[in-house]
From TrEMBL:
One of its GO terms (molecular function) is diguanylate cyclase activity. Residues 8-125 form the Response regulatory domain. Residues 209-346 form the GGDEF domain. InterPro entries: CheY-like_superfamily, Diguanylate_Cyclase, GGDEF_dom, Nucleotide_cyclase, Rev_trsase/Diguanyl_cyclase, Sig_transdc_resp-reg_receiver. It comes from Cohnella fermenti. This is Diguanylate cyclase.
């Protein structure tokens, strides 16, 4: 019988009470918990242990969570370890984006919700278990191939299984766990890819390929959570995401969760006027759901505000400018009364 390997989780926080609180919660899952009170102590532990997950506090003296995450991502021995930031920062804070850039796969807000924490931890423990099982299978088959060439067919089958798992793992790492649409990391990669593709196309044929972006926000979502609770809030986001994905239509378009109650849609080869039409279709689709929202200042049901921007990628533009234009348009849609679409094509729209 193969020896059972217990997954290891590292909790990093400079406050002892937080460490023990996390340890009590994690006692509900099958794992071995390690604790570190500083970045240096955490680095030392990661070099001696293969962790399935790191729960990392952002605000720590000497070395903060961002610095530690960057060091871990830059080391071949530790770059594979998924990191979840545990922080008290507001979801609107730019530090959330900095966390993803530093290498985090997710973040949790303090005070930590036990059910949400356990749900996320179980996903990564399951992925780690499958990874260990497949690595063990591959190692066993490699030894048998050296001994008997007749097992080449079995090896091929194992490799196909491993490749399939890698694909599934990539899909899981690109998917938002709550809404099941693309996550922020997938959005960043897709936008960069589509921007460069359109830029190359416009270099060969100026004005041939435009790229549009829709950034949207669920109106008065905090009030929704306050009135109906976080479980209903999660259900609301799931319904919004599902409706957006169905309404967008084209296979090449991407719907992603941008953060909190914000979503973003990448529309390749789409001029601004067409993106406006898509945005209005999305607004009407969410409105038609009729999800009750008694505390909304706009309608008695859930609505969204949308900002639209378009660009003809060239040497004088950037993907970041497209995001900023869409963000500004969303701001104007919200300040203009919400439940509406606003376009910002000044410097980014095609001529």
């Amino acid at each position: 019988m193969e020896e059972k390997i217990t997954a290891k989780i590292l909790v990093v926080d400079d406050r002892v009470e937080n460490l023990f609180a996390m340890e009590r919660i994690l006692a509900q899952v099958d794992c071995e918990v390690y604790k570190a009170r500083s970045g240096n102590e955490a680095l030392s532990l990661t070099l001696r242990n293969d962790f399935a997950l790191i729960l990392l506090d952002v605000n720590m003296p000497e070395m903060d969570g961002f610095e530690l995450a960057e060091l871990l991502q830059g080391n071949d021995l530790t770059c594979h370890i998924p990191i979840i930031f545990v922080t008290a920062i507001n979801k609107e804070d730019r530090s959330v984006f900095k966390g993803y850039v530093s290498g985090a796969v997710d973040y949790l807000l303090k005070p930590v919700d036990t059910d949400i924490l356990l749900s996320k931890v179980k996903v990564f423990l399951d992925l780690n278990r499958k990874k260990i099982e497949l690595e063990a299978t591959k190692a066993r088959l490699d030894r048998e191939i050296e001994q008997r060439k007749a097992k080449e067919a079995e090896l091929l089958h194992s490799k196909l299984m491993l490749e399939e798992f890698v694909v599934r793992l990539k899909q899981a790492s690109d998917t938002d766990g709550l809404t099941l649409v693309a996550n922020r990391r997938c959005f960043d990669e897709t936008l960069d890819k589509e921007y460069l593709r359109a830029k190359r196309s416009n270099y060969l044929s100026p004005g041939a390929s435009s790229l549009s972006l829709i950034l949207l926000d669920v109106d008065y979502f905090k009030k929704f959570n306050d009135r109906y609770g976080h479980l209903e809030g999660d259900h609301c986001l799931q319904q919004v995401a599902k409706t957006l994905a169905e309404a967008v239509g084209r296979p090449g378009d991407l719907v992603a969760r941008y953060g909190g109650e914000e979503f973003v849609i990448v529309l390749p080869e789409t001029p601004g006027k067409d993106a406006l039409a898509v945005a209005e279709r999305l607004r009407l689709a969410i409105e038609s759901l009729g999800m009750p929202h008694e505390r909304s200042d706009v309608r008695p049901y859930v609505t969204i505000s949308l900002g639209v921007a378009a660009i003809l990628p060239s040497e004088e533009t950037s993907a970041r400018s497209l995001i900023e234009a869409a963000d500004q348009a969303l701001y104007l849609a919200k300040s203009g009364g919400r439940n509406r679409v606003h376009a910002s094509f000044k410097e980014t729209a095609e001529s």
